[in-house]
Amino acid sequence: MIGGLFIYNHKGEVLISRVYRDDIGRNAVDAFRVNVIHARQQVRSPVTNIARTSFFHVKRSNIWLAAVTKQNVNAAMVFEFLYKMCDVMAAYFGKVSEENIKNNFVLIYELLDEILDFGYPQNSETGALKTFITQQGIKGQTKEEQSQITSQVTGQIGWRREGIKYRRNELFLDVLESVNLLMSPQGQVLSAHVSGRVVMKSYLSGMPECKFGMNDKIVIDKAGKGGVTDEVGKSTSGKQSIAIDDCTFNQCVRLSKFDSERSISFIPPDGEYELMRYRTTKDIILPFRVIPLVREVGRTKLEVKVVIKSNFKPSLLAQKIEVRIPTPLNTSGVQVICMKGKAKYKASENAIVWKIKRMAGMKESQISAEIELLPTNDKKKWARPPISMNFEVPFAPSGLKVRYLKVFESKLNYSDHDVVKWVRYIGRSGIYETRC
Amino acid sequence: MPAVSKGDGMRGLAVFISDIRNCKSKEAEIKRINKELANIRSKFKGDKALDGYSKKKYVCKLLFIFLLGHDIDFGHMEAVNLLSSNKYTEKQIGYLFISVLVNSNSELIRLINNAIKNDLSSRNPTFMCLALHCIANVGSREMAEAFAGEIPRILVAGDTMDSVKQSAALCLLRLYKASPDLVLMGEWTSRVVHLLNDQHMGVVTAAISLITCLSSKNPDEFKTCVSLAVSRLSRIVSSASTDLQDYTYYFVPAPWLSCKLLRLLQCYPPPEDGAVKGRLVECLETILNKAQEPPKSKKVQHSNAKNAILFEAISLIIHYDSEPNLLVRACNQLGQFLQHRETNLRYLALESMCTLASSEFSHEAVKTHIETVINALKTERDVSVRQRAADLLYAMCDRSNAKQIVAEMLSYLETADYSIREEMVLKVAILAEKYAVDYSWYVDTILNLIRIAGDYVSEEVWYRVIQIVINRDDVQGYAAKTVFEALQAPACHENMVKVGGYILGEFGNLIAGDPRSSPLVQFNLLHSKFHLCSVPTRALLLSAYIKFINLFPETKATIQEVLRSDSQIRNSDVELQQRAVEYLKLSSIASTDVLATVLEEMPPFPERESSILAKLKKKKGPGAVSVELEDGKERGELNGGGDRGGDAAIAASNASTPSPSADLLGLRSAAPVSGAAPSAGSLLVDVFSEAGPAASSAGVNDDGFLSALHAPEASDSPLVEGPGDSDSAPPSAASEDPAPPLPESDELLNKFVCKNNGVLFENQLLQIGIKSEYRQNLGRMYLFYGNKTSVQFVSFSTTVSCPGELQSQLNVQTKTVEPLVEGGAQVQQVINIECLTDFIDAPLLNIKFRYGGALQNISLKLPVTINKFFQPTEMAAADFFQRWKQLSQPQQEAQKIFKASHGMDTEVLKAKLLGLGTALLENVDPNPENYVCAGVIQTKAQQVGCLLRLEPNAQAQMYRLTLRSSKDTVSQRVCDLLAEQF
Fold it and tell me: Three-state SS for B390?
């Protein structure tokens, strides 16, 4: 189990240090600083073993979060906890930065006491935490309220308190996906996958029961078999359904029901939460295609031409497009011409960065650059790193579709139709690279 | 050197550096550097001409980036361009960049060399200096090739500026050190030497470094520098401190130059010219005098400079080692430093004194400081100084103060630093041995040593104690007593147990009379330590136990009980188990006589260099120990372990010696038991060596062992054969003349053809045992005359004679034996044998003594046969047959066909052929039944190659033996000898 948790700033100064177990000494704080933060060689592994002590770290901007243990813990659990910890902190005071951590250290210690007990992770649901860890002054809680909190926290549904009332019952559902790609210069897909999340924000009264449905292949096939005609089932499964490789759910989802019926039903926490995470690798819609053309003219010149094609419905608009074209290390000058957007040679990053604000589907755009090179003594050839790309599109590249989201609340007098539901799809680029 | 004006600072560089220093993270720094590199690349693009200033600035930035640890792969060309600039600062940066970044195989090297050449030939001294510095800094072979010819010319040219000369001298020194073969001084030598006369002190200082280096390689060429150096030195030393304005350092005139001059003089022997020598002695005296003067300044620099010269002068005095007066003065001066406040001075003083102590003139003077040195050893805070003090004590030790020094070192050892303990232990051990007046003191000291610093006592130390105790009769009793007492301590070190086990096993009988140390008490004491010891020690203790059985029959039951216990006889360690089993059997089967022979007292060890000294030498490197052991005159081979052949019975503690128990079971029967293997000549080994093969064929069980002992083919083993023979031996004739050889002496001779050790002769009165070893054409034979009666033999004398032509063939030297042999005692005689040429007869041994008034006169043949001088030769089949064919002349071959007189056991045959001294060649003869051997007989006159083939016929019980050698007599003789063996 986690023996201690440290938060450092970028210089390696300790901002927060909380030790949960006796086997972690004070020197562990320094050991991590010396061996990881100040290491000569940048430490790339998130897990470091120093003197039979394991350090698990994540970095958020300039802040290092490190969990320490001497035992053989489940590393995935520790990282899950660290991410959760970041989320909780972000929910309380916004961006996780040195400034914010310094201003909220009392709160952070309070949180740490709550979400980690003797090294065992506890309830880290923000909504629930916010009911008893508040940033306001202590307000006199009646005995009733206290017992209510106790029963809720220790009860079966720890993530939602009773007696929530909204005038307007609303539900926001975001499907956030990031698409990763590695493509050969000839346009062959070497590897591609989508990792997605379903994030919800619910403002519902009472203790509603929700049911979420999407175009999961297994569910659709099952429905198709049991359905009226096979043809319909085939057509839906052929085009509309997707194969999900693996998925994880929020604690509120009833797993037994998912196992038996493949249906996702849950009592939602109040406020924002992540309902599920999933990954797909088949039939991915690649929103952009990058076609590179690199020509070496003698030893001192390089001609680069890159064409990008958008590959989705013309009615949709992609945003925040950025293409990064690496340049050789001996570049002495760059001339760029592009038809759309802005392009610039960034010497500090050894790359040409081409930015386009918006681009509709089924369009193409191109950039051409002339790179002057300085003759060097080295005979080493340029390694040609891949061209990478960033973008945001308003659909799910995996093809996931929300089929329904039903809300049942038997005790209160509102029905599924009364709930206002908002659904949004956002597809972002993960590591989206094309070799050149 | 032109001063750098203020406007020359490069603002861009300063901004860049401060940017980098302000970077918060590594990534930010890399980004900043990438940006700067891109900027420089765009500037260096070539289409626009850069002015010298910007070029310098960018090259500087590149250099800075490179020094931060990033790769730089451009800008070299710009740096080379800077070399041709006329501005000092630009040129300087160019040279700096090239010295740091140039790689020798670059194509730019030609351009660089060109620029350097231009600068060297320019008349501008600063440019010349820059070029010289660059050559020295790069110092590569290419540089040496290009400029090794040029620089000496600059160095000795009359019109070269002084500052350039200095640089040239140092540059040449650097090139010479890097590639001495390219720097040929030749015609420049004398002119370089005359630089010592230069007006400019800086030039002299630089030149002297060069000359010192050159003259250490070829002193003869630079001999003339001695007188020049002396005169230069005397001018400096006698000058007032104000004379050498610029070169006076805190009132000391030219200290660096003086030191270098003194060091140069240390490369040469004392000058032969009287005048020069007088002047030098005068100088040295002046330096010593100056040391006595009150300091002119309280500053530490003043005393440092003064002392530096003084120490160099003292090392020169020590180097000459011919002026007693100066040596003593130097010693006294150092004595003053011994109590100085400065730790460094104390260290240096002790170090110099160490060398002084080895000089005959100053040894006495050094000895007067013994109290101070001992004090330093005890109270000094710095461990390195303590180490020097220990070294000095070791160096100054002689017979007069040995006891004191050894005692002090011993007492210091208890608190000594761990790092120097082992060395201290070795030193104490050596001193104790070297200056031991009475050996009881020696034994006390070493036992104390083991007690105090057990872990740091190496094997050699306790080997040596045992060697000395065994070789010195007078100390054996005392040693046994002391060891016994030392073992009574509740906790004693394992090394102590080893010494105790060995010594009590050998000499426990000497103290057995005392009821407090009765045999059983001794045994119980040893056995109480048994379980705490490591395996090698336990093995040694087991050997000690079997010796106890021999020494004290009354302990037999107890010890057998111990050996029989499961923890011994079923020990998981093979060595221990085997020893336990064999010793148990040996003690229960063998008669007391056999036991007494097997477990005879160790013969004295041959004198040899102390193994401890060898170890110390190894520790410190050759030459560090200048003192030799006085009694170690004969420098034998450096045998790391203190073991020798004779103690194979206990040598299991040393893995290099074959384990005796292995031989007992004949497992090693295939290994050569040749005469040339001296360490295999253990008595115990030999006794069983012939029984071995039978045992192995019969299996490893007890019965096999037993049958081996009594097997018919082992009939010539002294174990069983001895008493039988004695009955048949006729009483010898009582005449003064040497009796004719005994009738059976030829038979006795044959017994020893294939072995080196055993019982040569035995009757009711006398037993003669033999141990012999042979190497090349030399042999040494130990004869042990044992008086079997209880009455002493009077006027005991032995002579060895070589009848007839043997006199010219064999050179035999004997040492006389004591005329009195006590009842039950044994005397030893050493016979050295040198084989001059091949021979047939054996030398005669004549023994005369009076027993109860009757004169006994026995003549025997000494078992020295030609085959003893065999050296085994390994060769392949093809090789063998080629040589076989070469020796095809009829007289070169000798053949015999004879009937087998013993069994035709393969293992026995093999062992015999090996015992002959030849190498048994496997897989040579197409018929696997046959045996093929090869060897070379070493005589002083010549070497005789010898090939042998033995073809047994099992059905007919016949052998055919064929011998071919380059000499007919040899073939015949070896054939005759060998025919008797099978």
Answer: helix
CB of B48 within 8 Å of a chain A CB? The answer is no
pLDDT tens by residue, A348-380:
889 999 999 999 999 999 999 999 888 776 667
* Token reading at B837: 């040429």
Domain covering B867-980, topology = TATA-Binding Protein (3.30.310)
Write down the residue that tokens 């009937």 correspond to: B899
Q: What are phi and psi of A7, to 5 degrees?
A: -125, 125
Confidence band, pLDDT 50/70/90 cuts, at residue A138: low
pLDDT in tens, B735-792: 455 556 666 666 667 777 777 788 887 787 788 888 888 888 888 888 888 888 777 8
- Backbone φ, ψ for residue B255 (5° rounding): -65, -40
Nearest CB to B35 within list A10, A348, A372: A348
Crossing angle of helices B494-507 and B519-530, in 10° steps, is 150
The separation between the first and the last C-alpha atoms of chain B, rounded to the nearest angstrom, is 97
Answer for the pair B326, B285: CB distance below 8 angstroms, yes or no: yes
Q: What is the ipTM of this complex?
A: 0.73
* Residue boundaries of the structural domains of chain B: 9-77, 379-599, 744-864, 867-980
pLDDT in the model for residue B431: 82
Rounded CA separation A195/A397 (Å):
10
Question: Which backbone phi and psi does A202 adopt, to 5 degrees?
Answer: -120, 135
Q: What secondary structure letter does DSSP report for B456?
A: G
Contact A356, A341 (CB under 8 A): yes
Site from B24, B30, B34 to mutate, A interface, most A CB atoms within 10 angstroms = B34
Task: Say which of A42, A348, A377 has its CB closest to residue B34.
Answer: A348
Chain B CB contacts of A329 under 8 Å are 37, 73
B61 annotated ligand binder: yes
Query: pTM for the complete prediction?
Result: 0.57
| Mean pLDDT score, B14-21 | 92
B379-599 CATH pick, 3.30.870.10, 3.30.1230.20, 3.40.30.120, 1.25.10.10: 1.25.10.10
Reported residue count of chain A is 436
Q: Over pLDDT 90: what percentage of chain B?
A: 6
| Token pair recorded at residue A59 | 């970095």
* Cβ–Cβ gap B38/A372 under 8 Å: no
| Per-window interface: A 50-79 vs B, CB < 8 A | 62
Q: H helices within B225-342, ranges in order? A: 225-238, 255-265, 274-292, 300-320, 324-337
Q: Which pLDDT belongs to residue A171?
A: 92
Inter-chain residue contact B31 with A349, CB threshold 8 Å:
yes
Structure tokens at B260: 């270098």
Contacts for B354 with CB less than 8 Å, ≥ 6 apart = B388, B391, B392, B395
CA distance B521 to B24: 79
The response to whether B58 counts as a known ligand-binding position is yes
User: If pLDDT is split at 50, 70 and 90, which confidence band does B259 have?
Assistant: very high
Architecture of domain B744-864: Sandwich (2.60)
Contact status, residue B261 vs residue B229, Cβ threshold 8 Å: yes
Which letter does DSSP use for residue A347 in this model?
G
Per-residue pLDDT, A239: 54
Burial of B134 (0-12, 13-18, 19+ CB in 10 A): buried
| Token pair 């394991």: residue | A54
**Nearest in space to B387 (alpha carbons), one of B421, B353, B363:** B421
CA dist list (Å): B881 to B923, B947, B949:
12, 10, 11
**Fold match between domain B379-599 and domain B744-864:** no
Q: Do B42 and A332 touch (CB under 8 A)?
A: yes
